[in-house]
Amino acid sequence: MIPYSYSLHKINDTVNFGFSADDYSRFKFGDDSVARYFGQDLAEGFIRYYLQENFITGQIVVISSPYCFIPTATFAMKNAFVSHLNRWLVEHGGLVVQEAKVHRTITYKEDYGGLSAEERMNLIGNDSFHIDKDFLEGKTLLFLDDIRITGSHERMILKMVKEYNLKNDIHMLYFAELVNKNIHPNIENHLNYHQVKSVFDLDEIIKAGNFAVNTRIVKYILNSDFESFSVFIAQQNMAFINNLYDLSLGNSYHTIPAYEENLNHLKSYLQLQQNCKVS
What we know:
Blueprint: E1 4-11, H1 21-28, H2 32-51, E2 60-63, H3 73-91, E3 98-100, E4 103-105, H4 117-124, E5 128-130, H5 133-136, E6 140-148, H6 152-163, E7 170-178, H7 187-192, H8 202-206, H9 215-222, H10 226-234, H11 238-250, H12 260-278
Parallel strand pairs: 1-7, 2-3, 2-6, 6-7
Antiparallel strand pairs: 4-5
Helix pairs in contact: 1-2, 2-3, 10-12, 11-12
């Protein structure tokens, strides 16, 4: 089984990406307004370059990149992709899409985007991926991700497909793909952090009114130095702080020693605020 692969943007050099590096950075750190137009653009590209000539009459299932408890940035992009694709499918007599989740058990905290191809595979190879095979039977699967750099995530997805003996038609869809193999995979981190250089650069994204929390931003906040973390938390509202703590627990970040000091401070901060409210 060889899946169909499509990427909207082909990265062939380190300057001209075909999209704004600043926008991509904001997207990776939760700017939902960017995620929306990234998702719409990807859907439009897939429609134009595939579906118009290869209309899928059966049931389509859209599957965002694997996650545990906190969604990845791709999840926000997926929402817009589904909305745009559904409108086109309905206009052309097709079925609206369904969605499924790949459940992922993550075994590391390292920043994946700065690693080589070999390091990525060694790291991700310890993770496990799970999906509801029975729900997928007889349906066309669209696996969405924001970027393909070395293909290690794709290999893990296809390994899962083989383990579950899935016979579905499969499409791997990416907003962007690194096609020049002479460019080091750490170009991904160049894009990820193009506009976010410190935890304080997140403030404008969080408070802009178009914020969608994701795994990257939670890990980035928890991994900041204690002094910066303390100042940053003091500048946030209680809804954000409570959500940050609950999401951190949901992803078992309390079991990671590198996050311990900041999470303990977060817990104490919430307890102090609760005590002040009671008194």
